[in-house]
Amino acid sequence: MPTNKSRQRLRVLVVDDEPLARCNLTVLLRDDPDIGEMRECDSGHAAVEVIRETAPDLVFLDVQMPECNGVEVLEMLGTELPPAIVFVTAHDEYALRAFDVGAVDYLLKPFDERRFRLALDRAKDKITRQRQSQAARPERFVVRSLGRIHFVPVADIDWIEAADYYAQLHLASQTYLLRRSLAELEHELVSRGFCRIHRSIIVNLERVRGLQLRDDGEYDVLLSSEVHLRVSRRFRKGLQERMADLGAAGSPRHT
Q1: Using CA atoms, how far apart are residues 67 and 89, in angstroms rounded to an integer?
Q2: What confidence score (pLDDT) does residue 100 get?
Q3: DSSP label at 165?
Q4: Among 34, 152, 203, 224, which is least packed by CB within 10 angstroms?
Q5: Which CATH number does 10-133 carry?
């Protein structure tokens, strides 16, 4: 059946460290008239870069890859998740976890064409619904803690601090480690109401109650949770301007 020209064709990324596995998927994808541009990656790190650069509609993502597995790819992407993800794995236990991290379906190796078509149709349905509703991409992070997968809404985060090669997300009563740099998070979250106040701290401006003068003449940010965070002199002016821009009755109050 010919492709409907009014229908936007899908951009697809296939991620697997095994060349044969990638080939099997791309061969099946080429038979579908709704598939447009296709790309391939042989590692998780490469996949993160390509997803950020090209924003594919659909990603077939191998779970088990050396150095950076499928779940870690989603962690590093943060809120930049593609609209539809299909996990590909050779192990049942990983397949069952696919839905825990927001995958629309999973393919258990070896799979046949019928099972592939079912997964592809499910992905198409999700993408179509999202396009029709013009839904925004989910504003949440995927993190692992104590062997479990958690979805952490960006809006629930009070503040973030650097923790070696990770970032620690502070919520009202919980903390999570995310495999991202603070510089990456600052770039990603600045448009969502977050502001850097120190070289190692980013705050959610919705949680800021005011600035408190310290004995040494510097300032602390006072959060609604009663947490005090030091403001670097380098970032203080930017913080005050951001708060004023948000219409918080001028600059934050000084105490």
Answers
A1: 16
A2: 64
A3: T
A4: 224
A5: 3.40.50.2300
